[in-house]
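Build the 3D complex.
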Amino acid sequence: MAKGESPLKQFEIQPLVELNLFGQNISFTNSSLWMTITTIFILAFFTIPFLKSKKTNSVEDLYPSRLQVAAEMGFNFINNLITDTAGKEGRKYFPLVFSLFMFILFGNLFGMIPYSFTFTSHIIVTFGLALGVFIFVTVLGFIKHGFKFFSFFVIPGLPIYMLPLLIPIEVISYLSRPISLAVRLFANMLAGHTLLKVFAGFVSALGFFGILPLVFIVALTGLEILIAFLQAYVFAILTCLYINDALHLH
Amino acid sequence: MPQLEQIEFFISQLFWLGVFFVILFVVLTYFTLPKIRAFLKKRDEFVNSHLSKQDELIKKAEQLIENYESKLNEAKDKASQIINEAKENALKESEKLIKETEEKIQSEIKKTEARVDQEKKQALVDLEGQLKDSATSFLGKITNINKEDIKI
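Done.
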């Protein structure tokens, strides 16, 4: 970081290829570049280990390679997650949760590479994902239950006279789901990366004593990697819970 | 904050997010995940089939051990039976031998006693004859009667 640069400069979008579609600016930016890298990496990571020909039924072919074990771990992790939260019916939506989790996880992790770009630190990206999840679970709820879906806002066993008060609260809490989902991820990424940059500024400013913030940065980087994982997990588990709500109402 | 200032890139970001997420989702759903699932299923089946096979093999091995032990016990029983028989036979044989020998000795003793008795008798008869002889010759000498005419 050059001296005097804002710690927020790392979040700046830089168009790499100027593009226009129907008068809209859809330039390929550094954000899009890291989305490309993330997508290609995920697909490669989970596809390549399973591409080797397995025509015979020998033990050698069924014995997983190291990469394959890693890929299987990711697969089983999300598989357990969705089975635990949304039950057997939720298994149908496994690919969606899996894609979301991996996209956010590797977006966050690649953001930890110095000089890279964290697309999950942009509110519009996280909001896009969260809104997508929100629309998906709402449509799913309507498809599964029709207009009975509105009974979701009525807590069963509650006296009638409480309903006028509680229904608006439930509706608001339902509508705030995408916002909380988006802001949680965005704020975590923003705060972590900003903090890292601020301390990085201290390292150069303090000269010899810069070693202290440097040590702190090392620890903080570890914490950020944990948060990268945790936030992807939170996003995925909340998606699972919303799917569960849509499938089973109350 | 660039996140809220660079509004001109909102559409671009959403567009590319949509493009890449849809690509990721579609490829994962229709290509990668079925591959992983198929592989895991295959391996589970393989492991399960081998587990059941293993159970069978263990049962077989146990049966073999049982067979082996029962056969071993049978053989041991047979061996001890043979040994006992041999001992009994040997005992009988030796008893028989001893008996036979004793009988032989007994008969030998009896025979010898009989011969001794006979010889005694013979000796007595001989002695009588001799005594008669010497008596007649003595009488003949003193009486001068022909030996043949004297009768005792």
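The interface with chain A takes residues 1-4, 6, 8-18, 20-21, 23-25, 27-29, 31-33, 35-36, 39-40, 42-43, 46 of chain B (CB under 8 Å).
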